[in-house]
Amino acid sequence: MENKKKIELYRSMLLIRHFEEKLTELCRIERKLPGMVILCTGQEAVAAGTCAALEKDDVIISNHRSHGHLLAKGAEPNTVMAEIFGKKTGCNKGKSGTLHIAVPEVNALCTTTVVGGGIPIAVGTAFAQQYKKRRQVTVCFFGNGAADEGSFHESLNMAALWNLPVIFVCENNVYSGAQRMEEHTKVKDIAARAAGYAMPGVVVDGNDAEAVFKATTEARLRCLAGEGPTLIECKTYRWRGHGEADHQAYQPKDEIARWMERCPVKKIERELLAAGAISNQEISELEESIAKIVEDAVRFAEESPWPAPLEALDDVYV
Ligand SMILES: Cc1ncc(C[n+]2csc(CCOP(=O)(O)OP(=O)(O)O)c2C)c(N)n1
User: Fold this and answer.
1) Mean pLDDT, rounded, of the chain
2) What CATH architecture applies to the domain 3-298?
3) For the chain, is the Cβ count within 10 Å smaller at the N or the C terminus?
4) pLDDT of 295 strictly over 90
């Protein structure tokens, strides 16, 4: 991979990390953020690696752990932050809050918190892309828990049958809520399920952004060649609880520590330093500029007005 592209990946991951660390801080202030805040800290390489392999017109469908996906696809930090605050200037006018954000400007069409609910929607958008003969693909992000839902199996079957241009990206972060994967399925690799639907299934190190980028690039080319979908399983780990109110009593401390040693952001940073592609000075400057983007986003959100109560009736279709 070219150093320029690798630095892009690093920057994308740093933005997600800083953005979400700020959310962790804000969650400690009572009543600052409405609703449940669900973070992808530790999983940044999946969002960054996948989205770096996509074009702007490609579609992503996200789940409850969405901030990384949206930022990596190019969503504006200011309007995403304002949306998380529930403000009128948010990308969904304060009506979605953190859990249901859509950013149509970057083709992040839908975030659904119905576990497994995004997978058939992605099959639908991929069908539209194929039907309209667009050179575009759809990526669907979902967790390992979602891969045990009926919607996952039905969707993979249909997508394979119709050779749809869809890439199923399973972020296997070991847990689903408070349950470990082995408590709800006997399979070791979710990717093995792809064989049941006659599509390629790939396991990648989900803490290696470059590996995720390569797997997505190959899957995208297969989609564009009319060869249909791919299931990519990214093995990673959730550093935080299911949501920020979760005290993680069920996650062994030494397990968290082991995975933190495998930090995806530090990994790419070490590689860039070793290759002489970036200096410590440049890293500090990059961190500073990203910290400023996040501070500006928080200021923008804090200074923005609340939506008026009657605006709840705008944009309602029926
Ligand atoms: C259909 C449905 N069942 C249950 C829930 C409650 N719920 C929300 S997130 C979650 C865990 C999802 O785990 P996983 O798919 O592995 O994603 P992760 O949270 O690990 O990223 C559950 C059970 C829900 N939102 N929707």
Assistant:
1) 97
2) 3-Layer(aba) Sandwich (3.40)
3) C
4) yes
